[in-house]
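Final report, Chapter 2: Outcomes

The project's central promise was a pipeline that accepts a single protein chain and returns its three-dimensional structure in a standardized token representation, suitable for archiving and comparison. That pipeline is now operational. To close this chapter, we reproduce one record exactly as it appears in the project archive, with the input sequence first and the structure output second.
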Amino acid sequence: MTKRVFFQIHWFLGITAGIVLALMGVTGATMSFEDEITEALTPRLFAPGVPSGVDLSPDRLIARIESDHPGYYVARLDWEAARDRSHAVRLLASEGRGRMQGQVDRATGRWLGEPAGAGFFHLMDELHRWLALPGGGNGIGRQITAFSAISLIFFALSGLYLRWPRQALDWRAWMVLDLRKTGRNLWRALHVVIGTWVLLFYLLSALTGLWWSYDWYRQGVLYALTGKAGGEEGRRESKKDEVAPRPAIDPAWTAFRSATGDTYVWFRITRPAPAQPMKAISFDARPAGARHLRQTDRYSYDPNTIALKKRDLYDRRPLGTIITQSMYELHRGAFFGLPGRIALLLTSLTMPLFTITGYLLYLSRRRRKREAKALEAGIALPAGAGPGDLLIAYASQTGTAEIRARNAALALAQGGVRAQVVPVGKLTPTLLAESQRLLLVVSTYGEGEPPDMARGFASRLLSGAGPDLGHLHYGILALGDREYPDFCAFGHRVDDWLRAAGATKLFPLIAMDHGDQAAERQWDAALHDLGAAEARRGQTVIPFTAWTLVSRHMLNPHSDALKAFHLQFEPTAAMDGAWEAGDIVEAQPCNAPEAVDALLVAQARDADLIDLPASLRDHLMTAMLPDAGHPITAEAARALRPLPVREYSAASITADGTLDLVIRQVRGEDGRLGVGSGWLTAHLPVGATTLLRVRPNPGFRADPGQGGAPLILIGNGTGIAGLRAHLRAQAHDGHKGHWLLFGERTRRHESFFDDELSVWIADGTLARLDRSFSRDEDCGRYVQDMLPDAASTLIDWVDRGATILVCGSLEGMAQGVHEGLARILGEATLEHLAEDGRYRRDVY
């Protein structure tokens, strides 16, 4: 929760103060080397050569300058010891805010003029300090820049907190920038990694910049560093037009130069306004080799007796005093010498980078939210539909529950009921408290487990005492497989939790298996009672279409393991749509032709069955055959249950031109091939057609918002199919730098798709390939056993935005990988990754 609050404030300040900070960064960088630039533009102005006459004394020089500029007084004279250089002088108007700054001839006092670019740098200064808005230092511009400086402090500290890596002591997790990333992930990497590089410099700039923004801040820093607050020393009230007496400077100057000799190379003489008396004549002197302009000693003389009142040497000052007197030099980095100035220049120039990447990330986030809302809506809601009529939550592993949830929302909306669809991970006690009616469409995964995306929901809510939901009415559609003993166990678990919390059922729990027509009718009736439109069930069911088997290649011909095949299909007609990496291929299998023929021959011996229709064989090819010796009539044949659909991971993408599958043969206890694998790998001839359909599987698709972020692909056996599809998609889109960890039995016989993997390693699509072979003596380990050795790299990849995709067998591999990831990343992290779509599994 704390991170979310900081994140919201971080991006809100970013879109409000970002442009101002970018402007302040550019203008600050522009002024970093103002003196060097102006002198380079007009070198003769600063170094006109050694004059023929002697130098004027300070009093004579000041008198000459002021006589040439009536209405102005010399407020500051910068005296150069080297005689080939001119002096710098600042003139202020006796009345008003006029100011002149330029160079004067040291021997005559003649005004030489302003340096080239002075007007430009003056504008940069005003933009930097108060955006050149009216009112100057007292206007709104100063408040805006001060607010932006405070925002910069928050950006630096909150950004550090938000990106804190798990391996905080690993410098690579903090400092390494991976330029292989693209899109949103590259923007984020630039934002956070370079932000870490410049963090201390930005804090320095902001904390020192506030010195000129707020008097309370300046006084507080002074007191903290020196133990005393700054006063208004030297300031005295005087009557208008009154001129205070000006003591002569020359006597003190002579005494000072006589005492210091050639120790110093530069001097500054400052004079107050005419209305303010000079209680002391002070000279700030900088020695040769000084690190910055404020590294000066100060000598103060009594104007009446010319006695030295105070000698304030830089090296003897307390550190706090040095800092407060060098705030400008700290602000521009010069306090640390030339390297510090260069560092502040470069870091100031990067400020627009954070504004640009921040806006790109913000716009990307807005776009993803709009896309999510569009996906949730699915259709235009009917007029008059009330807000929040119904909340539908889904827990899906392969996408079936999500599709059914969105179909239900569409059907309800067509009947005038507004329904909001969310994943169960978004269900919070607050959202449940605000909802009156709730539909849940939840799948059960594996041995009674919740889908990956619902693990966080299960651990946060279902594991403890639930909130009081006495106001809530709910209904559950539980999806599962009757072949498992814990049929729809997660749905029943959610049902028990809601009943214990006091919620009231809208209808009894509906437990649905594949092709369960009775459960389908119950679900239709439940939706109708809730207001769904008649015969308008939402998204059309994807039909089976005919595909031609064009290639079938055995992947492990000499292995003693069950045979695995690579199959390629082409559509018999123009395709309507496309599929993506991660999608599921559903096959309508057929029985072995010889099994059907044997059954028919056996049945034909019965005289009563001689008149069986000729179409019976076609019907029996797709039906569950009765036991041998069971008589078949035409009516009994029509009553046979159809063969269940078999699901496989797509091993290709639409751009490949073929729909590829990787299927391992399955054999029963009697040695016969399984129905699905037998039909596709043995009985279906190459060149013949069969019925297939591709079903979207949002639960295993790579998030398009990741924009080419690295994938960590983990699997075994025929799980190479789903991982291969993702790699082909990444290679097709030009996204490189992924990592595959894959396990099989033997290197010699089960190095599936070795040629393709070699090409992807060579062209960079795969940055890393780790293989394990459980039956080889030199390896002897499973894919999950490789994770501990790669723990630090795995953490680093996840911190860089990688998505983890796991494909393969649920028993053994998937559970072992999950437990290994949990030990490395933490169970809570895995739950968050699953809810964010960065940990996805397609396991069976």
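Archive annotation: Confidence is low (pLDDT under 50) at residues 232-240, 374-388, 535-540.
This record, like all others produced under the grant, will remain available to the consortium after the project formally closes.
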